[in-house]
Each structure stands twice: as C-alpha cells, then as structure tokens.
Design a protein that fits this description.
- By secondary structure, this protein is of the alpha/beta class.
- It has one domain.
- It contains 2 helices and 6 strands; from the N terminus they run E-E-E-E-H-E-E-H.
- The longest helix is centred in the C-terminal third of the chain and has 14 residues.
- The termini are far apart.
- 1% of the residues are buried.
Length: 95
C-alpha cells in the first residue's frame, strides 16, 4: 500500500519554522511502482515536529553569509583560520 507523508513543522535554531516537505509526498509501494501510478487510497503517515536546534534556517544562513562578506569576515575575504597540515613522510623498515 502506498503512503502519503504530510508536511510537518521543523523549528530551527533561529526559531523560524518551515514545513518539510512543503507539499504532501507520496511513496509508492512495489505494486504501484510496477503499475506506474499510486494506489487509490494511500495510507496516511504521521510524524512529530522536529527541532533542528543545531542550524539556522536556510534564509538566516544566507543572511549571515551576506553580512559576513560585507563585514570582511567571511571566507571570501581571504581571511583563513589556523591551518594545520601533516606532510607525508616515508618510513623504511629494514629487517
């Protein structure tokens, strides 16, 4: 039986909320895949809201990037943080 996923709210670190997916999404079962179209009455699925507290929403992320570029603090300004690299070394073990 096919399933329909309804939009559920996702709350980001910046406190903005977005519905994901934006529109109901139909997941087709194996029989529907073979037929090429979904079942007449797909099963409704439910999921709780999600709190993505680690990241800002995409709009706030873009705004922060633009502001950082204006202030000269962004990655495009040529300012780079501390870099550590390890050079390759060749070790020969003789027996």
């Amino acid at each position: 039986m096919c399933r329909v996923e309804s939009p559920a709210p996702v709350t980001y670190k910046c406190r903005h909320t977005k519905l994901i997916p934006q529109q109901p999404r139909v997941y087709m079962c194996d029989a529907a895949d073979r037929r090429g179209f979904p079942c007449k009455t797909p099963e409704q699925t439910s999921k709780g809201s999600c709190h993505n507290r680690l990241f800002d929403c995409p709009n706030c992320m873009e705004k922060k990037k633009r502001d950082a570029k204006k202030d000269g603090k962004g990655p495009s300004s040529g300012v780079i943080g501390p870099i550590s690299s390890k050079t390759g070394t060749s070790i020969t073990i003789e027996a």
